[in-house]
């Protein structure tokens, strides 16, 4: 049997060692990437858990000095006299969110239907780009426009002494969340299979019938998710609301009376209180309410998306 030369054997050994080293490097890089991703997830979960734990622990301290019934059902907020009723802020938040959705939802759906089903391709692309730009405008810009243009207009046409209130806040928030709801609704409508549209036309249906009876029902989960996401942004919005709502702890359900909501009240009060004070604990409880509402809405959106994907 022919013997292999030492040079050939050495070359094979070097090649084998090189391949093994390459696989070792690849394996090490793969393990490093896995640990990096896992560490990032753990870090994110730890940060979220720490935030929830800290806000909860600090917020619940308020009930050492204030009863549950007073905090949630009293509208009397006067820290100087030990009164910490947050009902006016909680109700104001819900009222403002409801008003905003009543204004925004029908407009957003109509705009999304026009973009997805009626507009020509060139206009469709232009409108989508415009909506993306509107989403990126800072909230303080909307608030400043509301404070300098909208409030004087409301004061002039309603006779209100100041013009701040739920009407101005709802209109500003509606303009802010309209692009978000519209774009997500547009995506939901575009996800409906074209075969369903063609089947409608094959049966003699009109475009209106196709939109109302086929497209909108098929996209209802996506539309609901869009509305809920808009609701989450409306509830958590701060700066724009602070600039137009008036920031007064009173009922303002006549729309043009200065009032306040959870976010605006926290911003206006947080810099003027001691960290260990009952007032600060009450503000943290308000922050906890906002956090729980946001988490609940996000979980609801996830459930709707899973339901829509399954159907």
UniProtKB/TrEMBL annotation:
GO biological process entries: phosphate ion transport
Gene3D superfamilies: MetI-like
ABC transmembrane type-1 domain residues: 90-301
Keyword terms, alphabetized: Cell membrane, Membrane, Phosphate transport, Transmembrane, Transmembrane helix, Transport
Keyword Metal-binding: no
Cell membrane found in the keyword field: yes
Membrane topology listed for this record: Multi-pass membrane protein
One cellular component term from this protein's GO annotations in UniProt: plasma membrane
One Pfam family it belongs to: BPD_transp_1
Compartment(s): Cell membrane
Record field: transmembrane: 32-63, 84-115, 135-154, 166-184, 223-245, 282-301
Listed InterPro entries: MetI-like (IPR000515), MetI-like_sf (IPR035906), Phosphate_PstC (IPR011864), Phosphate_Transport_Permease (IPR051124)
A molecular function GO annotation: phosphate transmembrane transporter activity
Annotated PANTHER family: PHOSPHATE TRANSPORT SYSTEM PERMEASE PROTEIN PST, PHOSPHATE TRANSPORT SYSTEM PERMEASE PROTEIN PSTC
Family: Belongs to the binding-protein-dependent transport system permease family. CysTW subfamily.
The protein's role, per its UniProt record: Part of the binding-protein-dependent transport system for phosphate; probably responsible for the translocation of the substrate across the membrane.
Protein name: Phosphate transport system permease protein
């Amino acid at each position: 049997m022919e013997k292999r030369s030492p040079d050939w054997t050495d070359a094979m050994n070097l090649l084998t060692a090189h391949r093994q080293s390459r696989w070792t490097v690849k394996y090490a890089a793969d393990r490093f990437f896995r640990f990096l991703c896992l560490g990032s997830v753990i870090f994110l979960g730890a940060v979220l858990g720490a935030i929830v734990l800290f806000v909860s622990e600090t917020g619940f301290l308020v009930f050492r000095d204030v009863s549950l019934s007073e905090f949630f059902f009293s509208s009397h907020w006067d820290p100087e006299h030990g009164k910490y009723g947050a009902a006016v802020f909680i109700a104001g938040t819900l009222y403002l969110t409801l008003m905003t959705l009543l204004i925004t939802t029908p407009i957003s759906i109509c705009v999304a239907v026009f973009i997805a089903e009626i507009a020509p391709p060139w206009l469709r692309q232009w409108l989508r780009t415009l909506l993306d730009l509107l989403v990126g405008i800072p909230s303080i810009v909307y608030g400043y426009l509301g404070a300098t243009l909208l409030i004087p207009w409301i004061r002039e046409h309603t006779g209100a002494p100041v013009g701040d209130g739920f009407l101005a806040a709802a209109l500003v928030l509606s303009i802010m969340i309209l692009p978000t709801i519209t774009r997500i609704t547009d995506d939901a409508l575009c996800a409906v299979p074209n075969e369903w549209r063609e089947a409608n036309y094959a049966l003699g249906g009109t475009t209106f019938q196709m939109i109302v009876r086929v497209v909108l029902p098929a996209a209802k989960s996506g539309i609901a998710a869009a509305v809920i996401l808009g609701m989450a942004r409306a509830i958590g919005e701060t700066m724009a609301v602070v600039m137009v709502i008036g920031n007064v702890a009173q009922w303002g359900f006549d729309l043009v009376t200065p009032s306040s909501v959870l976010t605006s009240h926290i911003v206006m009060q947080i810099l003027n209180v001691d960290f260990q004070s009952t007032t600060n604990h009450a503000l943290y409880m308000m922050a906890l309410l906002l956090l729980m509402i946001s988490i609940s809405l996000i979980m609801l959106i996830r459930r709707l998306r899973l339901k829509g994907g399954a159907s």
